[in-house]
Design a protein that fits this description.
It contains 3 helices and 18 strands. The protein is of the alpha+beta class. The termini are far apart.
């Protein structure tokens, strides 16, 4: 009896462990970006075995890949931010492309052409941000760190910045949804209800499946950027009819940095209420 119990317990533990590994891998993919492309020579022929190196500017983290027999390479699970991409192969000049910006959930295509020469020779290129992403048909917007930190927010709820994207509104007060929202007002995207959104924080789902709300409102100082995918997102994120809102928090870098926040309210900064007697001072507020 005990051996059968142990066998069942081991079987269930294996299933749970496998599920945890798969969930962790899936979560990691949602909080990163990718770069892929083809390495060719000047005649257009594929170059297998080329070494493609991506260096993250802020942290110095390096990820490498080798091109396959078709010259194709893939750099997966890249942390968001600016990268310097270098490609080298024996007998060819080394190519360095700087200013490659990887954003949340984005797949970039970066193709390289190598010219015959020695490794001591190098070609440097400053990349431009692609205006059109051809890897998917999704309609999305990314609210970057500069907008999150510098734009004023009433209540410091980052979701208010979702209104910078087309077809996104914050519904007025008095609705049923407002009374049940644990983390503040939630946006309506493309005419759908606010309870039809999916929320991810660093790849982890933070949607309350009972009330269909966001249950964690991260500090705006901790947010690197967040992405609003309004249509055509991958099937792995199914289950809701509206948008996928994916938040990436800030991570460590080689330079020291910090922030300071102060919340201060005082009647000195207030004006009279419409119904206040105009000959009386503004009611005290501390």
């Amino acid at each position: 009896m005990s051996s059968r119990f142990l066998s069942v317990f081991s079987y269930l533990a294996a299933i749970v462990g496998s599920f945890f590994v798969l969930a962790t891998a899936a979560a990691a993919q949602t909080n990163t970006g990718e770069i892929s492309g083809v390495v060719r020579d000047v005649q257009g022929g594929a170059l297998p075995g080329a070494r493609v190196i991506a260096d993250h500017v802020d942290s110095g983290v390096r990820i490498e890949s080798l091109s396959d027999e078709g010259g194709r390479y893939h750099l997966r699970s890249l942390r968001v931010g600016m990268y310097v991409i270098s490609v080298e192969l024996d007998g060819f000049r080394r190519v360095v492309r700087s200013g490659v910006l990887v954003q949340l959930g984005q797949t970039l295509t970066q193709n390289f052409t190598l010219d015959v020469g020695g490794l001591v020779e190098e070609i440097r290129v400053t990349a431009n941000i692609p205006l059109l992403q051809t890897e998917s048909a999704e309609i999305s917007d990314i609210i970057e760190n500069e907008q999150v930190v510098q734009l004023p927010l009433n209540g410091r709820n980052f979701l208010a910045l979702a209104q910078l994207s087309d077809a996104v509104v914050i519904p007025p007060g008095g609705t049923r949804g407002e009374a049940l929202q644990q983390a503040g007002p939630l946006p309506n995207v493309g005419g759908q209800r606010s309870g039809h959104n999916i929320y991810l924080l660093d790849g982890v789902k933070v949607t309350d499946e009972l009330f269909n709300n966001l249950v964690i409102n991260p500090s705006v100082d901790s947010i690197q950027e967040f992405k609003i995918q309004k249509s055509q997102y991958a099937a792995e994120f199914g289950g809701k009819a509206s948008a996928l809102i994916n938040v990436a928090t800030r991570a460590g870098a080689n330079a020291f940095r910090g922030s300071l926040f102060e919340f201060f309210r005082h009647d000195t900064f207030d004006s009279h209420n419409y119904f206040d007697p105009k000959d009386q001072p503004v009611p005290p507020l501390r």
